[in-house]
Amino acid sequence: MKLSLVAFSALLPSALALWPLPTGLSNGSTPLRLSSGFDIKINIANAPADLVAAVETAKGYLANDKLQALVVDRGASSASAIAKAKSLPSLTLSLLSTPKGPVSSISEEAIAPLESRVEGYTLTVPSDGSGAVLKANSTLGLYRGLTTFGQLWFDWDGTTYTLSAPFQISDAPAYPYRGFMLDTARNYFPVSDILRTIDAMSWVKINTLHWHVVDSQSFPLEIPGYTALSEKGAYSASSVYTASDVKNIVTYAAARGIDVVPEIDTPGHTAVIANAYPEFVACPGSTPWASYANEPPAGQLRVASKAASNFTAGMLKAAATLFPSQTFSTGGDEINANCYATDNETQASLAASNQTFAQALNTFTMANHAALRTEGKTAIVWEEMVLDDPVTLANDTIVMVWISSDDVAAVAAAGFRIVHSASNYFYLDCGHGGWVGDFPAGNSWCDPFKTWQYAYTFDPVANLTAAEATLILGGQSLLWTEQSGPENLDSTVWPRAASTAELFWSGPGGNVDTALPRLHEVVYRFRQRGVAANALQPEWCALRPGVCDLLA
Amino acid sequence: MKLSLVAFSALLPSALALWPLPTGLSNGSTPLRLSSGFDIKINIANAPADLVAAVETAKGYLANDKLQALVVDRGASSASAIAKAKSLPSLTLSLLSTPKGPVSSISEEAIAPLESRVEGYTLTVPSDGSGAVLKANSTLGLYRGLTTFGQLWFDWDGTTYTLSAPFQISDAPAYPYRGFMLDTARNYFPVSDILRTIDAMSWVKINTLHWHVVDSQSFPLEIPGYTALSEKGAYSASSVYTASDVKNIVTYAAARGIDVVPEIDTPGHTAVIANAYPEFVACPGSTPWASYANEPPAGQLRVASKAASNFTAGMLKAAATLFPSQTFSTGGDEINANCYATDNETQASLAASNQTFAQALNTFTMANHAALRTEGKTAIVWEEMVLDDPVTLANDTIVMVWISSDDVAAVAAAGFRIVHSASNYFYLDCGHGGWVGDFPAGNSWCDPFKTWQYAYTFDPVANLTAAEATLILGGQSLLWTEQSGPENLDSTVWPRAASTAELFWSGPGGNVDTALPRLHEVVYRFRQRGVAANALQPEWCALRPGVCDLLA
């Protein structure tokens, strides 16, 4: 069959630019535009300041997005329909019930225990010229609804419009944890990059920034009482997140419904601690590094040393005070046995205390978790702490499965709550070749590149019983930064992290074919807001939903 | 063996930050700094304006690069040596012989016939406080030498210094063509992105921008007399390179020693021409697209139509007037036989003229090349015009081999000059998954990602006789932009395109292990100059040459 290009030029129906797709959505096909006097009202006595600020931000996006519809004529053929459309005068926010005490802020609700967060909302946008209504049981839910409201609109010649009114949306996330992990240790990211990333995360309802803040290569975190770590371990004096920077970041995130979960990996990935505290680190800089660590430089905390253990617990406890989150990751991945086997001090400590390494690791880890618990923190660990180097984790520990999604079932069988972080689906850094030197044909260890489509097809409950499935908290995209920095942050993360955000908000089973036009709209809207999201296809395809499909 | 981190903190010798590596280089280990009154003098009567401007630009880089050495202490331990170093008062440029007429400008020499360009130079930088001397047989050679001079220096606390004086450099390229190809049709790039890319290219002595300016998806080039093509074929009115934009780009490039070689692909990759001239295009938008083209939308110029042939020759001739280059690519890749087999008009034309398709293609192509020759242009084609859809190319035609480096020998056996452009080594877009829709497990057709290391190990004369080897003009990196745009331009292209630039300037056989520290310096210097080059490794590795090698 032949189809002339002229047919392609006709106006195709605009996809609904909603991402993640609301779990309950009905809409019509009536044009509607924002009134020139459009306002957002908060019908809540003594509304929290962060909700007031969020409304101002939402109004700013409505005024400045200026996103034309992704159709061939960008909206021109709808001009008269838009001009004749009724005007939406307002959006009114209200809570479904009035709390007895003060209304909780978005920031407070963003860091509440995961399973207790209320992110659902209902949003009604009539097409008859009456006002829109957003309701929720929480300010956090209202914030999510505001985000959705901001995605309904396109611009034509200065008019902010939709062709798809009325809307009736009843939405809530499938999973409580929807995250993005950023490694700021392999390469440093200025605070401004992190704040911009937080904004972008909020636009697709990601609610957790898993901040892998330090690692063997650098220690950019200023911890009260332990400032030598960053003074001697950051790449430079200007490559440090000061306590003030951290407060800025966590405050900014919380106001956008995002919990910042810090990770200080232990006992591996800690070579840099030797710069300040050489006595606590085994095999620092040992070579060949590949015999002592998965990547250079080698170096692990001396788990069998009482002094090192006390130092670590104290340092973690001090770090925990910087972060309001109720969770804190102590890592626990990639522990190298040879490093300890060849460390005379570790062997002497084990002999003196008549402990095995496994016993010492258990004591060390439990002391760290106990210290964090005194600060009100629940521990998060990588999967090895269950499967490879098992310790006696508290039942409430959250486990991140990264090596392979195949390992999820074993962690679930052990009864722990799980955050999907599998390298074979969610690692954004894969597929760019080997980064170690003197390795001309080196491949990425986690080849191939993880496309948005592939992550989108992930099944969060594969191979799990119904009971085990309840242990799944959600999942996240992850960016390890051996081959990344501020230069490629936006284009590497976006829109792929949005794909995973929809998977865990809207639930699995989405169709990549119908998702693609909406994801293009994410890309183009992100760019309008200053985030350099990467092209998924030629613009020709972005303007013609379905026409560049494999079998189209 | 164990090595403590303390040892890593010691100052390692700075790599020489030269890229591409000069073909003749000797240097010492004497500190030297730029005098506070340092000046660059042009000892040439009536020096061309572009050389004067290039000197000002070079002085700007010297003043503003502020690149600290890539060593652990960033230069601190050299502070006293730097403070005590002798000062370089000046760099003096001169020509080795005085021409009878006016001195040729860089811009004139940049577009001279490839084999006649003179890019060599000698550069002497004494360590005794006497002035540096740059000599060449051409202003283009002086420009290359200026670029090298600008790479000798680091910054410590406001002092611009080297630890490696004196320098004696005698340099000239191994190959005359060192290119970068940019596709501006799949996604559009603003002029500012192209100008920034030209600057970056000049820093590593790339001398050709192969501009794949239009393709089936969009026609962003305004051609005098054929403006309907861009009016109806560009993504938007603002996504057009006007004649004025093109003049700006080619002028900017030439002044930086770069020839802009345009490509208007024919007869395939031309669906968009149907927007303005539907009568000249076979199978426009035919579906399923995969039966009619390698990517959507389908559409090819009607090679058997006299009117289409006249149109094409006229359009190419008009386009040629925009570009001062002496070469022009008419493409010729991926001709789809089914498109023509099912096009009634093409079949009728062939029958009426009693021609085969091959004969018609030959007539069409020869007419185009003849039209270009009246404008003084030598034709460039893709390899299919020799191997798959052979036409009677003039002996001086330049052939780009893209499908596989395995095809080079066959093209060389046919006696044509060759530009290496093989997808299996030089395509910068590979490895990011399939981009067509409804294809969740789709791979990149040219997987895997092409690392800088892999391109660096390419042998330009593999499987060629000595005589055939003389046909190799050089090679280039290429960025097709189905999955790229301004957002990832810098980080996708740099530093990988620099790797290929060194391969074809310094010649093959380079060692990736010793190249890596220098390539880090390219990355960091590019960033200082506003080009967002991508991280190759953690900064920890960048500051410790060799320590992150595979077997280190």
UniProtKB/TrEMBL annotation, chains A, B:
Lineage top rank: taxon: Eukaryota
Matches recorded under CDD domains: GH20_HexA_HexB-like
Any GO molecular function: beta-N-acetylhexosaminidase activity
SUPFAM superfamilies tied to this protein: (Trans)glycosidases (SSF51445), beta-N-acetylhexosaminidase-like domain (SSF55545)
EC numbers for this chain: 3.2.1.52
Protein name listed in UniProt: Beta-hexosaminidase
Keyword terms: Glycoprotein, Glycosidase, Hydrolase, Signal
Catalysed reaction, written as an equation: Hydrolysis of terminal non-reducing N-acetyl-D-hexosamine residues in N-acetyl-beta-D-hexosaminides
Domain Glycoside hydrolase family 20 catalytic: 175-507
UniProt-listed InterPro entries: Beta_hexosaminidase_sua/sub, GH, Glyco_hydro_20_cat, Hex-like_dom2, HEX_eukaryotic_N
Residues in Beta-hexosaminidase eukaryotic type N-terminal domain copies: 18-152
